[in-house]
């Protein structure tokens, strides 16, 4: 009799479980669409990337067919695409587990354009079960544009709170550029001063040695513990000023007199307070070479070193290098980005600390920003007339981490938004939509919305 009762209970429980499963709401449609409906292709760029997004990660490799209709420019001779198009149609495959895909448009060599040329891209179809979303058309203009606004999912990449990428956003062009945080080691300033930055986004730290000959510096010249930084451990002198003050870089300004330029020991990756492995440390010395730089570098115990010359380029804030790969493609040209979203060494109270989801503005190019509380004016109602009472600031970390909360009520702070004045004078209002599972987002892939307030 007990066995019969147990069987009845189990059947009843299974019935309830099955009913619950049947009552679970179905997932919303997974939509394929362009990241924006309009994008510019500046005259100084040889190629540009067009991005496609899905509402959520694809369950299987998903083919998306895109048609193209050029105006004033011919495929094959004046421009090409990768993947290649056949009969004005190309296919992009978004791999399983990913929610983004892209294709590249490249201008022909020695091409002279009037700026009126354009290509209309249209999503023709998407492999089932994915459907085509509202933003199915994108107009690529062969000139700079000033976007009226859009929504965008930032491609921070995998890693959650320690997302793998830094993301550079250009509001006026509806574009973003994702760069692996560990893809570079040093940035060489292209302005008037001779300054070198270390990679705060990888948690790098540096220690000066009172020697000028790399061959004479070994692991005996540094205590590995002294390079530990982050997690409330270490000193602010180990990494670059987070407000972006170039007079406070961890590496002193490169002197004109070679004898004044000391050797530095560098831990290339850290940020969580861990003591680096001595075998992974490198030593560097930077000299001036004409209007540019020469980087000398070697492993901590190596007696010979390699050199790398770096020329300044006025179109960029910094020119970047990796000691593994040489020149590194990191920031876009300084006129082509407004803010950076990233994981980075930062601070809490009076201690070095690594933060997720930091937002820095392109202060060196003249970008400014302001925080506006919704108790003053709502995001929707903020307009050009409100700019007179908006105090713009030029510090790199005007936004910082203030846009989100990771304790208490986790999620985007809905009591504030931001106003950005780009280097050209265009003014945008910006709000963050989500960034965490607690507010409907995905860590590493925050969603933003921005709208043009005033065109320069």
In round numbers, the mean pLDDT is 93
Largest sheet: 5 strands, mixed
Radius of gyration: 25 Å
**Number of separate domains:** 3
Description:
Strands 5-7-3-1-9 form a 5-stranded mixed beta sheet, with no helix packed on it. The chain has a 5-stranded mixed beta sheet with strand order 2-10-8-4-6, with no helix packed on it. Strands 11-30-29-28-25 form a 5-stranded antiparallel beta sheet, with no helix packed on it. The chain has 3 domains: 115 residues, Sandwich (Immunoglobulin-like); 144 residues, no CATH class; 121 residues, no CATH class. The chain has 456 residues and is mainly beta. A hairpin with a 3-residue loop joins strand 21 and strand 22. The longest helix is centred in the first third of the chain and has 22 residues. The N terminus is likely disordered. Helix content is 5%, strand content 38%. This is HmuY family protein. It comes from Larkinella insperata. Keywords: Signal.
